[in-house]
Input
Amino acid sequence: MNLTEQVRSQAMQILSQETLSPDHFNNVLRLMAKYRALLIQNTVVKLHGVTVQAGPFAGLEFIDASTEGCHVPKLLGCYEWELHEIVEAIVATDYDDIVNIGCAEGYYAIGLARRCSNVRIHAYDTNPKAQEVCRELARRNGVEERVRIAGLFSPDTFREFQGRRTLFIIDIEGNELELLEAISTDELANFDFLIECHDCFKPGICDRLAQRFAHTHFKKIVKHQVGNVELPRLFDQLGHLDYLLAVWEWRMGPTPWLVAVSHQSKDSALRQMLIRDI
Output
């Protein structure tokens, strides 16, 4: 069964219910939007390859398809546009280690490895396929010697980085609160964090984590934004819906970011940015 047949079957199954609600139609709309986004993805890869075109990771040799979620926004370089200034501040900060928990295929882990030549990158994901792709991405971009790839990150693993200037980037689909509440705030006090808070799965995560860091970190909550991106010429011949789908990130609901910089950290570009915006 090819992709079109699979999507048709799934749509018919959703709409075959005896009683239909707006949720059923929303599910079909999302299914069809993903289908069209995948067709756009295939065309972009065929015509322009897999090199990231813009943004903080411009020049990253990427892959044909992401292990999860959207793909075209990553290739275009507009993915999570709201973090672009923050990523530049991270690059300008003198970290010893950057730990990416929930690294997926390695867009951030390997993107930062290319930009931060003196930093050790630690990429964790419980999905073996994600680990495999991340390892290949590191090799493809010539940074495999500075990237450590592993599976489960437990609360005890935080202790391995005590005494080192470390940033943790956390994207674990709603389990971020459980992870960070399993260890004392004192043990987290000297680390910096960039956390995607999946309030769409567990409402209130972002506020609870902000409260947890209230006495130890400078904080900023960053909401999702859509940036202005110059699309490839092929979009000149396509409709506005295709433009929107090209930059759509497949989110099901609110996923704000919490940026937290330790009060104990020495001056840095990231610290200055947060203090400026408070």
